[in-house]
């Protein structure tokens, strides 16, 4: 199953790159919440949703580009959670830091996660509490790494945040790196960062795949009260503020 999900993410990434590199003209629209969406998002969504319905027709899908009504979602115990193009700002700014995110949620827990960075040609994936990175045809199992002083990775596009800056002031000596999209989860999983705090709005499709990869590498993801993040369906698809860190 994990190989087929990685293949879907790769195919969606190839469609995104067609727009990114100008082979297909870019079309930008505004959603009802004023966030931007492109034809690359829609192309990737179509590939992933159609592929998942063929692979697992019995499992419903919640995607950023196709949310389902609460009356339909409220009794889901298992579902696919998809962000077809995470990091639209990075995509539009052409800095390569955007990803395709696919996660499988069971009983509120992300048990499978795939993150593909098409411009960087890096695939991250996790299942059964193990995580790997595939690059240049080589697979490497991921494990978190301690480091002193720790590296804190924060959002490239959402870092002008008073709460985040106040939080950073509470930490002992550390280094800050800015990164786009769900690649911040991957940095912790690879041991290239030790802390990823997010004080601000995110949706569950932004985090499900990264959460699975963080868990698989030996990290943890909790809210700032130390409680685990739960993906059991609720009216809102918003996450609480959270922190990814070493156990």
Automatic annotation (TrEMBL):
Enumerate the Gene3D superfamilies for this protein: 3.40.190.80, Fructose-1,6-Bisphosphatase, subunit A, domain 1 (3.30.540.10)
Q: What is its EC number?
A: 3.1.3.7
**Subcellular location per the Swiss-Prot or TrEMBL entry:** Cell inner membrane
Which keywords has UniProt assigned to this entry?
Answer: Cell inner membrane, Cell membrane, Hydrolase, Magnesium, Membrane, Metal-binding
Tell me one GO biological process term: sulfate assimilation
Its required cofactor(s), as named, are: Mg(2+)
Entry binding sites for Mg(2+) 2: 83, 86, 206
Summarize where Mg(2+) 1 binds, as residue positions: 64, 83, 85-86, 206
Report how it sits in the membrane.
Peripheral membrane protein
Would the keyword Cell inner membrane be found if you checked this record's keyword annotation?
A: yes
Q: Which reaction does it catalyse?
A: adenosine 3',5'-bisphosphate + H2O = AMP + phosphate
What the entry lists under InterPro entries is as follows:
CysQ, CysQ/Inositol_MonoPase, Inositol_monoP_metal-BS, Inositol_monophosphatase-like
Q: Which GO terms describe its molecular function?
A: 3'(2'),5'-bisphosphate nucleotidase activity; magnesium ion binding
One Gene Ontology term, aspect cellular component: plasma membrane
* A Pfam family per the record: Inositol_P
Q: Does this entry carry the keyword Cytoplasm? A: no
Q: Please list the residues that bind substrate.
A: 64, 85-88, 206
Its domain of life reads Bacteria
EC class: hydrolase
Role summary: Converts adenosine-3',5'-bisphosphate (PAP) to AMP.
Q: Which family does it belong to?
A: Belongs to the inositol monophosphatase superfamily. CysQ family.
NCBIfam families, per the entry: bisphos_cysQ
Protein name per Swiss-Prot or TrEMBL:
3'(2'),5'-bisphosphate nucleotidase CysQ
Q: Which organism is it from?
A: Candidatus Erwinia haradaeae
The organism's lineage? Bacteria, Pseudomonadati, Pseudomonadota, Gammaproteobacteria, Enterobacterales
UniProt lists the gene as cysQ
């Amino acid at each position: 199953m994990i190989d087929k999900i990685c293949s879907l993410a790769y195919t969606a990434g190839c469609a995104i790159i067609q727009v990114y590199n100008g082979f297909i003209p870019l079309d930008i629209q505004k959603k009802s919440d004023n966030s931007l969406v492109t034809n690359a998002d829609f192309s990737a969504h179509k590939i992933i949703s159609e592929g998942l319905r063929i692979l697992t027709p019995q499992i419903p899908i919640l995607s950023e580009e196709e949310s389902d009504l609460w009356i339909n979602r409220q009794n889901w115990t298992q579902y696919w959670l998809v962000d077809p193009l995470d990091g639209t700002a990075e995509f539009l700014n052409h800095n390569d830091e955007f990803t395709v995110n696919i996660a499988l949620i069971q009983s509120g827990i992300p048990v499978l996660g795939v993150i593909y960075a098409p411009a960087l040609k890096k695939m991250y994936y996790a299942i059964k509490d193990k995580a790997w990175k595939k690059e240049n045809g080589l697979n490497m199992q991921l494990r978190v790494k301690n480091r002193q002083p720790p590296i804190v990775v924060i959002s490239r596009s959402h870092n002008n945040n008073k709460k985040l800056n106040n939080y950073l002031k509470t930490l002992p000596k550390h280094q800050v790196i800015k990164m786009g999209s769900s690649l911040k989860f991957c940095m912790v999983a690879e041991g290239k960062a030790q802390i990823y705090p997010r004080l601000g709005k995110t949706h569950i499709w932004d985090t499900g795949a990264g959460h699975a990869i963080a868990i698989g590498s030996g990290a943890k993801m909790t809210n700032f009260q130390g409680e685990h993040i739960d993906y059991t369906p609720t009216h809102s698809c918003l996450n609480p503020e959270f922190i990814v860190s070493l156990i």
